[in-house]
Write a structure and sequence with these properties.
Elements: H1 13-24, H2 65-76, H3 111-121, H4 125-135, H5 139-148, H6 157-163, H7 183-188, H8 203-221, H9 224-233, H10 235-244, H11 246-250, H12 256-262, H13 269-286, E1 304-309, H14 314-321, H15 325-331, E2 346-351, H16 359-365, H17 368-371, E3 374-378, H18 385-391, H19 396-402, E4 419-423, H20 425-430, E5 447-449, H21 456-462, H22 467-473, E6 486-488
Antiparallel strand pairs: 1-2, 3-4, 5-6
């Protein structure tokens, strides 16, 4: 998308790359970027060098300047970076004008659009069908929110390009969710992103946020295609291109301006390919049969909503609804820790249709111990934070999150007799093993901070695990490691 994205508001060099990656492996949680249908062809930098997606090899990831600046800003705060978007005052549902229509036919014969039409309906057809089919469960919701915000419905295919409509998509740049938001951008458009909750994984709220962000970009650039380019490559990069080539751009119609910039060295290769991907995907989506594409319709994403008190185990919500806890977890991907967060009196939780009537009464009648998300444990003499966390199979970060007032003595020991709050077995069972926005680790199990000279093979050997397992736990698609990165190893 943009400021630091797949489908995040900042440069999306990974989004396209991930799309390309999706060609070689099933789309799993990762950047917000594994694109829509097969490997985001942004990985193909030149028409003459275009290869069938099945042969695309993802090697070194080139991170654009915008993303480097944004990540520096996010990590160090005092480093100048791209301007952060303010929360936009777009009232979703209040749009009353004529809904603009994304102009597709005028560009259908553009060479890059034709390339992606051939790719998505040819070599990558099966992946195209798989991802489009996945999106059918969210289609009605996304269309309604786009219409409410005055954005053409064809923009739902940004989620296809960004993540393949995967709510758990996670990129190596830490862009998350169906719309591939970076943490800073997500917070800028009103999403909660912290250790307890990550609303980038909430398909409803993240869609609202995407509409807000797209509205901001459309108003800034006066063109839907430039808005899409800025969503992928960052508004700063697009604005610099418009300023640098103002003479050429001013002669073009608003929607043509993207293609004018694309002929210059003003946009990253991924961004140059991003809009053609969107156009090709929308053309196929409008008439899949014409391209020989078959889409299977999945059940619509529907739910009831209930208010649940702080620090309530999701397992208790499941009992009150007489369903398996996995159903509650699936409906509430934003709740990372198997419980409602402790810092709010109540949290809105999604439950299966029909569960809302009488829910509060059923929950209140349950044994308090069954509803509770934590149990207590007393610190004995000489115990350390690290030792206690290890004995509980938690990270020190997780232990501190459950005990924010915990005091650690100068020698590293904990105060004898201190009562610790520890997540229950039921909470751990519903705990989402996904990286969080605070530490980059899942918060449970064992983690390793990458040091200079580390390799995945050496780390796996040290912790008695495998390279494949570490990559799976951390949503990694390559073996490259960044010094300082926190890896979940068990």
């Amino acid at each position: 998308m943009s400021s630091p994205s797949a489908v995040s508001p900042t440069p999306r060099s990974l989004a396209a790359l991930l799309f390309a990656l999706g060609a070689c492996a099933p789309l799993q949680g990762r950047r917000v970027a594994a694109p829509p249908l097969s490997a985001p062809m942004s990985a193909v930098e030149d028409e003459r060098d275009a290869e069938p997606i099945d042969t695309v090899v993802v090697t070194p990831v080139v991170v654009s300047r915008d993303r480097v600046e944004m990540e520096a800003w996010r990590l160090f705060g005092d480093v100048p970076g791209p301007e952060q978007p303010d929360v936009v005052d777009v009232a979703l549902g209040d749009y009353t004008g004529d809904l603009p229509r994304l102009e597709l036919d005028a560009y259908a014969e553009h060479s890059r659009v034709e390339h992606y039409l051939r790719l998505f309906s040819g070599t990558a057809k099966s992946r195209t069908e798989q991802r489009l089919s996945r999106g059918t469960q969210y289609d009605a919701m996304i269309r309604a929110k786009l219409r409410a915000g005055g954005i053409p419905e064809d923009f739902r295919y940004l989620a296809l390009i960004e993540s393949g409509f995967d709510p758990d998509a996670y990129s190596s740049a830490a862009a998350v969710g169906m719309w591939q938001f970076m943490a800073a951008t997500a917070r800028g458009v009103g999403l909660r992103v912290d250790w307890w909750v990550d609303e980038r994984r909430d398909v409803v709220k993240s869609t609202d946020a995407a509409v807000v962000f797209l509205n901001q970009l459309q108003r800034q650039f006066g063109s839907l295609y430039l808005a899409a380019a800025a969503y992928n490559g960052g508004p700063g990069r697009v604005q610099r291109g418009l300023s640098r080539f103002a003479r050429e751009v001013d002669r073009a119609e608003p929607d043509d301006r993207f293609f004018t910039l694309a002929t210059k060295n003003a946009l990253a290769n991924e961004t140059k390919n991003y809009v053609p991907q969107l156009i090709a995907a929308a053309l196929i989506g409008r008439d899949p049969a014409a391209f020989g594409v078959r889409i299977d319709t999945l059940p619509e994403f529907r739910f009831d909503e209930v208010m649940v008190p702080a620090s309530t185990a999701l397992a208790a919500v499941a009992v009150a609804c007489a369903v398996d806890v996995r159903e509650i977890v699936a409906l509430n991907g934003q709740l990372l820790r198997g419980m409602t967060p402790p810092d709010r009196d109540e949290t809105l939780v999604r439950v299966p249709r029909g569960c809302a009537p009488g829910f509060a009464e059923r929950l209140a009648l349950m044994d308090p111990a069954e509803r509770a998300a934590v149990e207590t444990r007393e610190v004995t003499k000489g115990e350390t934070l690290t030792g206690v966390a290890k004995s509980l199979n938690l990270t020190t970060t997780a232990l501190r999150q459950f005990n924010p007032k915990l005091v650690v003595n100068a020698n590293g020991t904990l105060r004898t007799g201190t009562t610790l709050s520890v997540p229950t077995a039921a909470v751990r069972a519903a705990w989402r093993a996904v990286p969080d926005a605070v530490s980059g680790a899942s918060g449970g199990g064992t983690t390793h901070v990458v040091k200079r000279g580390d390799t995945l093979g050496a780390i796996a050997k040290r912790y008695g695990t495998t390279v494949a397992r570490i990559k799976s736990l951390n949503g990694m698609k390559s073996d490259r490691l960044a010094v300082g990165k926190r890896l979940r190893v068990r």
